[in-house]
Amino acid sequence: QSALTQPASVSGSPGQSITISCTGTSNDIGGYNYVSWYQQHPDKAPKLMIYEVSNRPSGVSNRFSGSKSGNTASLTISGLQAEDEADYYCSSYTSSGARVFGGGTKLTVL
Amino acid sequence: QVHLVQSGAEVKKPGASVKVSCKASGYSFTTYVIHWVRQAPGQRLEWMAWISTANGNTKYSQKFQGRVTITRDTSASTAYMEVSSLRSEDTAVYYCARGGTHFDDWGQGTLVTVSS
Predict the structure, then answer these.
(1) Which residue in A49, A90, A99, A105 has the most chain B C-beta atoms within 10 A of its own C-beta, making it the best mutation to test that interface?
(2) What is each CA distance from B38 to A13, B14, B101, B106, B110, in whole angstroms?
(3) 3-class SS at B88?
(4) Of the partner residues A1, A47, A91, the one whose CB lies closest to the CB of residue B61
(5) What's the pLDDT score for residue B99?
(6) CB count, 10 Å around CB of B21?
(7) Quick one: pLDDT at residue A104?
(8) Mean pLDDT confidence for A94-103
(9) Among the partner residues A45, A57, A93, nearest to B108 by beta-carbon distance
(10) pLDDT value of residue B113
(11) Tens digits of per-residue pLDDT, B34-56?
């Protein structure tokens, strides 16, 4: 199972919006609405931000939103804040029952 | 409140085995799958396997099939992951995570260093 494809880095200024893409295949992202997104600060465990494409867990800011079109999922962060600077990973359920992560995207808040 | 508490850091020699534990609290242990995910230094997250805490069924990534074994002890609300025939490339932080199709909660991570 190959990793999902994410851009290595994105950046934005405080208050702006950014979008991180995550591209897979019909055997993972395209076949199921089981895409999730994780935020990871340095030397910390990942934190669930979005599940089942567009659902936010309790306690996650509504500045975070998710969507999917075909084999590509997207995470949008609006009203960027300094504390959003972190690595972001997408993940998907796959047709074999396994899970797969993306390569990760480093978000820099300028 | 859900907690997943993992065992401490390990240093192993190439060829050895390591077993990491993940003790769950704050919820009914057998109602959620436990996943294992690893992250080599400076690298991406890599899904390894999951175990059904209810019936012990397992699913492994093809990459780890045959070298990784995951088990659980329902009486202790604890899941275990053992990696055998360790090599330097297995140096990583190993995480357990609770969930089904996604990973709701994560352990703090266990650093396993493989070095001669």
Answers:
(1) A99
(2) 32, 18, 17, 12, 9
(3) helix
(4) A1
(5) 93
(6) 19
(7) 97
(8) 96
(9) A45
(10) 98
(11) 999 999 999 999 999 999 999 99
Which residue in chain A has the smallest CA separation from B5?
A: A45
What per-residue string of b and e applies to A65-85 under the rule 16 or more CB within 10 Å gives b?
A: bbebeebbbbbebeebeeebb
**C-beta of residue B26 within 8 angstroms of C-beta of residue B79:** no
Q: Which residues neighbour A110 within 8 Å (Cβ) at sequence distance 6 or greater? A: A11, A12, A13, A14
Q: Return the residue of B nearest to A8 by Cα.
A: B44
Q: Are B108 and B8 in contact (CB under 8 A)?
A: no
Tokens encoding B82: 């053992």
Is the Cβ–Cβ distance between A48 and B104 less than 8 Å?
yes
Helices (DSSP H) in chain B: which residue ranges? none
Q: Has residue A1 got a pLDDT over 80?
A: no
> How many Å apart are CA B44 and CA B63, to the nearest integer?
15
Q: What is the pLDDT of residues A48-79, one digit of tens each?
A: 999 999 999 999 999 999 999 999 999 999 99
Q: Sort residue B42 into left (φ over 0), alpha (ψ -120 to 50) or beta.
A: left
User: Each residue of A19-44: pLDDT tens digit?
Assistant: 999 999 999 999 999 999 999 999 99
Residue B100, pLDDT > 90, answer no
Collapsing DSSP to helix, strand or coil, B13 comes out as coil
Q: How far apart are CA B103 and CA B4, in angstroms?
A: 12
